[in-house]
UniProtKB/TrEMBL annotation:
CC terms in the record's Gene Ontology section: extracellular region; lysosomal lumen
TM stretches of this protein: 12-28
Designated name of the protein: Ribonuclease Oy-like isoform X1
Entry keywords, A to Z: Membrane, Transmembrane, Transmembrane helix
PROSITE patterns registered for this protein in UniProt: RNASE_T2_1
Family, per entry: Belongs to the RNase T2 family.
Keyword Cell wall biogenesis/degradation listed: no
Any GO MF annotation of the entry: RNA binding
Localization of this protein: Lysosome lumen
GO biological process: RNA catabolic process
Length: 261
């Protein structure tokens, strides 16, 4: 029998071989198809950059509307999260509600790092941020639930840690000492990359320029450098100007609207 090929068996093996090759190509091409779908899907986000915004509690109340009470707590000693904002888009899904149960495992971290300093409750503040910004982030798999969205912001606060950067550079809050914009820029650029913005408010009586927020523009994968373009900002927070010195004021728990009288 040796040397002889059973034609039936040969046909079977050819068939099996054929099917397996088909199978292989099917797997390879479906993998490719999948990657293509994933790429196309990631392009479905109507935004490219998102802005991670951290706030300095010491000056937050300087321009706070009188419609809200300002209540600084002990968390006011550190930079806090204001929000994570997909660029140039708002309120993407008004029916996507945030529930307290979405945040159970994050609530204590959120309370320390994303507190409200007004008489809105923390949850009301988070709910506003979710409705306005979070619902627009859900086109990214890494941000497609409240838990992922709020968790990402907490992660970003650790990654782009302003407290630590300032501490290392001996930048301390003061009512008398002020800084030049380039001093902040030298410290922040290595941490935040080229696309970031320092925002200032002007205090009423003395007209001082006061640091209030730091925005960093990120790609969907959370790395820095995304160019957000220019957009009109009508808030009292404006880009800090290099021509004038910048005050970094200590939180004044008794007089938060006028921390350095
Ligand atoms: C917050 O305080 C302001 C000013 O005192 C008041 O008018 C407003 O009703 C309060 N809002 C809430 C949600 O408690
Ligand atoms: C606040 O910032 C200081 C300075 O970096 C740091 O030592 C401290 O751990 C921070 N506190 C919190 C609650 O993150
Ligand atoms: C993040 O995304 C940007 C833009 O797509 C890309 O240039 C960059 O290499 C990515 N970074 C990492 C760490 O994957």
């Amino acid at each position: 029998m040796s040397g002889e090929v059973n034609p039936d068996m040969a046909l079977k093996w050819v068939t099996v071989g054929f099917l397996c090759t088909g199978c292989f190509w099917f797997l390879v091409s479906s993998e490719k198809l999948w990657q293509k779908l994933e790429q196309e899907h990631s392009r479905l986000c109507p935004w490219e950059c998102m802005i991670f915004v951290q706030m300095w509690p010491g000056s937050f109340c300087v321009s706070l509307t009188s419609k809200l009470d300002c209540i600084l707590t002990k968390n006011a000693k550190n930079w806090t999260i204001h929000g994570l904002w997909p660029n140039d888009i708002k309120e993407c899904c008004p029916y996507w509600q945030l529930f307290p149960s979405d945040l159970t495992n994050l609530v204590s971290e959120l309370n320390s790092h994303w507190p409200t300093f007004t008489n809105l409750t923390s949850f009301q503040f988070w709910e506003k941020e979710w409705k306005k910004h979070g619902t627009c982030a859900g086109c990214m798999e890494t941000l497609n639930s409240p838990n992922k969205f709020f968790g990402a912001a907490l992660f970003l606060r650790t990654k782009y840690n302003i407290d630590r950067a300032f501490e290392r550079a001996a930048i301390v809050p003061s009512c008398t000492w002020s800084y030049q914009l380039h001093t902040f820029a030298d410290i922040l650029r290595p941490l935040l990359g080229p696309q970031y913005e320092l925002q200032c408010v002007t205090d009423g009586q003395q007209g001082r320029q006061i640091l209030v927020q730091i925005k960093v523009s990120l790609f969907g994968n959370f790395s820095t450098g995304c160019f957000p373009g220019t957009s009109m900002d009508i808030s009292p927070y404006q880009p800090c100007k290099a021509q004038r010195r910048i005050f970094y004021v200590p939180p004044n728990l008794k007089n938060p609207r006028n921390p350095c009288p």
